[in-house]
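User: Working on a comparison across species. This one is dTDP-glucose 4,6-dehydratase/UDP-glucuronate decarboxylase from Heliophilum fasciatum. Can you predict its structure so I can line it up against the others?
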Amino acid sequence: MNVLLKESNVIQEDVKAISNDLVQELKKAEGSTWLISGGGGFLGGYFLDVIDYCNQNVFTKPCHVICVENYISAAPDRISHLTANQNFEIINQDIAKPLTISRDVDYIVHAASIASPTFYRQYPIETIETNVWGLKNLLDLGKSQKVKSFLFFSTSEIYGNPSPEYIPTPESYNGNVSCTGPRACYDESKRLGETLCVNYHQQHGLPVKVARPFNVYGPGLKIDDKRVIPDFFNDALYKKKISILSNGSPTRSFCYISDAIKGFLLALLSDHHGEAFNIGNDEVEISMQGLAQRIARIVGGVEIEYRQSDEANYLTDNPQRRCPDLTKSKALLGYAPKVNLDEGLGRLLAWYKQIYNL
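Assistant: Here's the predicted structure for dTDP-glucose 4,6-dehydratase/UDP-glucuronate decarboxylase from Heliophilum fasciatum:
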């Protein structure tokens, strides 16, 4: 299906809200050059759209964006509206390969990754290469160009399966992660990525920040992404039963995309170099059964079933609980998520209906 993500007014509303809420912070970057890897992906696409909005409505001098994207897990249509924009340069390349950039760069955002468990289990080596070699390529570029700031997208999965006393989970928790299991290609490469970032900061003074997103969802997350929220909507909107591929008891805390992007930008544009920040929403920790019930309710006329996944390792090393301690992000960044789960799910439902003509 040709999914023209650019036509979504839900994304446009989000982008306007993000930009207007962070006008003073974003003004710091006016007229700068950004390099964003994975700019065609779920998170990266919002970064590009926010900068485009600011170029038109906030900045006197526009920013220039270099987007590096190989579309292994992204949709070309997500950023096709920017291909003729003179302020955007889109390079179709694997970020893990040697990179040549023709101009000075001020800000680097490494958003390229394969984040859906179904797909990173299919592409484990590529996942590791992107999270490690791709990151090192950009860290070396940032060091040589003396960038103003560098943001690495890690993941809440670096915490593994915390014991109950570490829920909500603070940044100081070291993690409980398998280095050989089916999820290790993603979890452990992100952990190594954080180690690289910290050491580039300590040894070379690189102003790097690490973001640990907690289950971000929203428009731009393709309905066939295979993560749990699009999976449930895929079932519900195509008039099937919502399939829960566990006993329904694992819990997650979900964060709507506009809140997450604000957190990422606050981290990037801060002076807290060498630090890691949880970015998520701590309002509700909901079970998979509870999530399925909410989606069934807002879609309407949908039943729920329990069944086993066709993927043999679907539940192996799957964390039982996931909820962020946001004390550090709130105190140091002024981070304050606003969109509750029902509102966010409603916005995502509206986007799916619009984009997929449902």
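For your comparison, note: The chain has one domain: 5-221+254-284+320-340.

User: Helpful, thanks.
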